C-alpha cells in the first residue's frame, strides 16, 4: 500500500507511486518518530512537524491521530493519488492549509488531485476506510530530500525532477530507517521487506506477523520485541540485541545466526535456517 504527496513535473498529473523508500537519502532532522510525537495544534502543540528527510510512523484509525502536519520549504505543485490497494485502508485524503481550508483531496470517486503549495505549514487529513482494522493501521511516512532518485526507481522521467520533494505514506518496503527511535512501536503486519533498520531502537516494539524478509537489522535493539510469526527470511541480524525477544513461529530461513546472540529468546515453532522447526521447550538451545 502506498500513498504519495509529491511535486509534479511540468504537464504531468498521473503519478507513478512507490512504497515508502528513502534509499540513500540522509535525514536533516531526527529520523524515526511515532504517533504520540506528531504535532497537533489542539492535542499536541509541542510535537514534531514532518520535514524534509524525516521518517516516522502514524497510526490510522484506532486511537491514533487522523492528521499529519508537514512543512513545505519550496513552492511547487503537489499531487495526491489513491490506488485500489490504498482504498482498503483509506477512504479519503485531504491536504489543507494551516487555517483548515481544504486545498486538494482524493477518494474513490476522485483518485487524483493536485494543489499549488507555497512555503509554510500544511496538514494531511486521513480518513480510514470502513474495511480498515478497528485497532488501527501503521502507516510509514517519509519526506524525500530529492525526488530524482525516487522517481528513477519508480520509472518516472528524471527531467525537471532534481530538488523536488515527496511526502510518502504507506508500506516501508526498502525504506531507510537507520537509527530510527521506534521504542514500543506498533508494527504488526507491517511491510518491512528489505528495509534498512541498522542501529534502530525497537525495544519493546510489536512486529508480530510483519514481513521483514531481507531486512537489515544489524546492531538493532530488539530486546523484549514481539517478533512472533514475523517473516525474517534472509534478514541480517548480525549484532542485533534480542534478549527477551519473542520469535515464536518466526521464519528464520536463510538467516546467518552465527553472529546472533539468542540468549533469552523464545524460538518455539520458529523455522530455523536449515528448515527445521524448533519445537523445543527451555532450554531453547536444544534447537540449535
TrEMBL record:
UniProt keywords, alphabetically: Signal
Taxonomic classification: Bacteria, Pseudomonadati, Pseudomonadota, Betaproteobacteria, Burkholderiales
Leader sequence residues: 1-21
PANTHER family documented for this protein: BTB_POZ DOMAIN-CONTAINING PROTEIN KCTD9
Origin: domain of life: Bacteria
Organism: Paenacidovorax caeni
Official protein name in the record: Pentapeptide repeat-containing protein
Amino acid at each position: 500500500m502506498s500513498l504519495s504527496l509529491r511535486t509534479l513535473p511540468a504537464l504531468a498529473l498521473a503519478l507513478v507511486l512507490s512504497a515508502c523508500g528513502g534509499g540513500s537519502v540522509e535525514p536533516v532532522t531526527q529520523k524515526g518518530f511515532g504517533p504520540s510525537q506528531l504535532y497537533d495544534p489542539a492535542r499536541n502543540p509541542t510535537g514534531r512537524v514532518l520535514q524534509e528527510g524525516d521518517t516516522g510512523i502514524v497510526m490510522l484509525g484506532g486511537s491514533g491521530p487522523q492528521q499529519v502536519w508537514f512543512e513545505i520549504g519550496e513552492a511547487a505543485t503537489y499531487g495526491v493519488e489513491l490506488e485500489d490497494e490504498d482504498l482498503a485502508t483509506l477512504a479519503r485524503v485531504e491536504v489543507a492549509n494551516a487555517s483548515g481550508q481544504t486545498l486538494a483531496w482524493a477518494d474513490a470517486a476522485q483518485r487524483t488531485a493536485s494543489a499549488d503549495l507555497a512555503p509554510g505549514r500544511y496538514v494531511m487529513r486521513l480518513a480510514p476506510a470502513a474495511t480498515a482494522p478497528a485497532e488501527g493501521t501503521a502507516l510509514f511516512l517519509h519526506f524525500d530530500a530529492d525526488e530524482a532518485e525516487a522517481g528513477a526507481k519508480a520509472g518516472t522521467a528524471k527531467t525537471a525532477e532534481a530538488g523536488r520533494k515527496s511526502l510518502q505514506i504507506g508500506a516501508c518496503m526498502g525504506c531507510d530507517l537507520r537509527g530510527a527511535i521506534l521504542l514500543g512501536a506498533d508494527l504488526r503486519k507491517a511491510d518491512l521487506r528489505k528495509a534498512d533498520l541498522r542501529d534502530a531502537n525497537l525495544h519493546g516494539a510489536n512486529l508480530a506477523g510483519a514481513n521483514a524478509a531481507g531486512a537489515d537489522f544489524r546492531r538493532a535493539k530488539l530486546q523484549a520485541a514481539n517478533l512472533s510469526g514475523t517473516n525474517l527470511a534472509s534478514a541480517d541480524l548480525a549484532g542485533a540485541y534480542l534478549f527477551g525477544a519473542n520469535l515464536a513461529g518466526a521464519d528464520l530461513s536463510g538467516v546467518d545466526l552465527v553472529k546472533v546472540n539468542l540468549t533469552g529468546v523464545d524460538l518455539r515453532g520458529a523455522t530455523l535456517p536449515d528448515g527445521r522447526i524448533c519445537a523445543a521447550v527451555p532450554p531453547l538451545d536444544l534447537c540449535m
